[in-house]
Amino acid sequence: MTTVPSLLAGLNSGEIPLDSVPDNRLYSVASAIYLGGLKGPDELLGQLSSLQRDLLGFQKTLIEGDLAQAIDASEALLHRSRSPEERDAECEVRLRIERALIGAVDEEAIGAELRWCVDRLNAMMPESPLHGIAILNLAAWHTSIGEVMMAMAIHADISKEGGHLAEIRGLSRLEVGRILTTMGDLDPAMRHLWTAREIFLANEMQAEAVIAGLEWLDLALEGVSDDAPTMSERIRDSEPRELPGDTWIDSNPSDVREVIEALLPILMKDVSGEERTDLGLIFDAAEILTETSWSLALVDRIDEIQDSRLLDVLQS
Description:
Elements: H1 4-13, H2 23-34, H3 50-63, H4 67-82, H5 89-101, H6 110-124, H7 129-144, H8 148-155, H9 166-182, H10 186-202, H11 206-220, H12 231-237, H13 253-267, H14 277-288, H15 292-299, H16 308-315
Helix pairs in contact: 1-2, 3-4, 4-5, 5-6, 6-7, 7-8, 7-9, 8-9, 9-10, 10-11, 11-13, 13-14, 14-15
């Protein structure tokens, strides 16, 4: 499936004519321009229906933080999406997802509403970006109420063998890694976080790759051994399990080095901030692997560092 950035690149270069954007991608592309600030032809907004344009305005209101106005607007928009004059199933699903997430429906109805959206999209737009987002939202809701096994089962619908976008798979693997971390099942947690990081890197999602890398590193530094298998070996040799367990495998220093070398140039762009646990992980890794160049990189910026705990260890 062609991604929104690639569609925009084609539109901006003239390789993709404006009238050839698929109807089921039109709103997503327009949203990336209007809400995401990406470059694209202004004429694209003219291709939207009146309801779709008003839906964009509603989502902008949400981004700006005016929740009360957004809830009021969503009720009228939902009615329009179901009306004979403006019936639009995709807009209805988008609105019902947003309304469930912003508290516009009764709390006890949130789960059923999100499930309806997933099932509707599975029938209407299977494995589309919106379908993937709906699955992620449903899984996140189950996690939020402590139903982690149900969340894991829902995430299983986003698999490598399926047709979901890589970005959706990466976000799913990241969340599964987090769930397994809270359960103390750290070996598979590290595998999922590593997989998420690789997906993000392959798709130029730098911010998400940094997050996945830091969360993996936080676990990896609990035990590092030259004899430990690499993450690629652990992923290759992993086998399905019926139930989660309580597992741990030391990390291999080569993987730690790979992650640190990727993180360091990004994190060192700005070392300010009173709580920089990310820089603390860099220092811990330097101590564990006796890699003085990493700690020296921090020492060289000591006048800019504001985290008091990090300053204490650097000055000791």
